[in-house]
Amino acid sequence: MNFFLTLFSKYKCLIYTAFGHEQYLQIVHKLSAHGVRFRTRSHSYGSNYFGDSAGMLPRDNRTQYDIYVKKEDVAKAHQAIHAR
Fold it and tell me: What domain of life is recorded for the organism (predicted)?
């Protein structure tokens, strides 16, 4: 996380790292359903798109999503993520 974001953000505890949109959406849905507030930072590795005559088409998703919560919400977030 960026130094200034880390310094001033209330969301400092990395609770989960998801790879790809589907995994990210599953975790975010669980956190939201349990009322856990979070912040996300995404990192993209390599090119996610290739061009064609119709525009940009998705290739494979290599995006990493780091999901952060407040320190006091860590236990609640773990419960939410591991709930069925």
Answer: Bacteria
